[in-house]
Every structure is written in C-alpha cells, then in structure tokens.
Amino acid sequence: MNNHYSFIGGQEGQWRVTRCDTVVGAPIEAVPRLNVVNTAASQLSQRGTWMLQGFTSNVRYAERHEINQLRAKQEGLSRSASTCAALIPIKKNAQWWALSQDERRAIFEAQSHHTEIGLAYLPEIVRQLHHSRDLGEPFDFLTWFEFAPEHTDAFDELLVKLRTSEEWKYVEREVDIRLVKDSL
C-alpha cells in the first residue's frame, strides 16, 4: 500500500479552493484548485503552483486506549456526503522538536487534550494526518479533514479548541485551506 500523498495546488484538481487563510507565519500562494494524489511527488509529471507531500504513518502520540477509541469512531475518507474539506499544513518551532517524545506527549495530550478534542467531533469530521518533516518539506504535518457542509460550524469550533491549547504555542506556521468538492 502506497502511503505517500501529494497535494498539488494549481489550476486543476477535484477540489475547488474557497479560502486560503494564513493563521500564523508565512502565507502560501493562493490557488483556485487542489488535487490530492496517492503518489509521491517524485513520481508525478503533474506540477502546480505549489506541491506539498507527506506520508501516513502510525499514530505517534496516542496510547492504546486512545487509538482504540479513534478506530471505533473514525469513518473513512471520501464519504459521499463529505463535500467540504480542509488542508491545514502546520510547522512547529525548534523548541517543540527539542523536547523529548514523552514531553511532547504530555503537552499534546495531558495538557492540550488533542485526541479527546478530536474524538468529540467524530464521526462527522474525519481526518488523516500526513507527516512531512522527514521529507524535508516546508511543513511538518499536513492535516486533511473531510466533512459535510452542515458540519462546517462544528469544524470551526474544533479548530478554535485546538488553536487555543498549550500545544499551539509551538506552532510557527499554519495555513488553513478550505475546499469544496465540485459535483460531477
């Protein structure tokens, strides 16, 4: 199974960009469309205005009982009702990466309740985390969310809760790209 994904911002793609907001740090160039491809960038001939890539991996900061809860509630991506999406690239600062794994876990969950917050919005809002830091990308993580239009307010509420947590003090760059899937 290929776990590499490329997010290509440009003139074509299955997702129409409705907003591209810089939350913190440097912006990313606004584009009209986004294409999501389950292929590493090095294997693609398609190029856009920009391309971000990442890979899916094991859940890194969750404990077994949290992973079990996530798997029990999380539904798959590409649900027919999920015509809204968000791509949120995030880069954390050097202070975050200087922490040990257990120190990051303490901030991520014990202080920020990241998994607990996310669980409260499942199954309506599904997400897939893509790791980019090890690929030398400009962001550490690319978080992909999908949801139905009627859950947009809940998605915004989820983001407010995460962005006001202790963990977000370590974010040095974040862009919020909102998308709508055009009906075929």
Q: How would you describe what is shown here?
A:
- The protein is built from 5 helices and 8 strands.
- The chain is of the alpha+beta class.
- It has a single domain, classed as Alpha-Beta Plaits (2-Layer Sandwich), CATH 3.30.70.3420.
- It is globular.
List keywords for this structure.
184 residues; alpha+beta; Alpha-Beta Plaits
Give the overall average pLDDT. Answer: 88
What is the terminal-to-terminal distance? Answer: 28 Å
Q: Please tell me what the overall shape is.
A: globular
Q: How many structural domains are formed by the residues?
A: 1
Order of helices and strands: EEEEHEHHHEEHE
Instruction: Please give the radius of gyration in angstroms.
Output: 16 Å
* CATH fold-level name: Alpha-Beta Plaits
Short synopsis of the structure:
By secondary structure, the protein is an alpha+beta fold.
Secondary-structure topology with pairs:
Layout: E1 4-10, E2 15-24, E3 33-37, E4 50-55, H1 64-73, E5 84-92, H2 94-98, H3 101-111, H4 114-119, E6 126-131, E7 141-147, H5 152-163, E8 171-181
Antiparallel strand pairs: 1-3, 1-4, 2-3, 2-8, 5-7, 5-8, 6-7
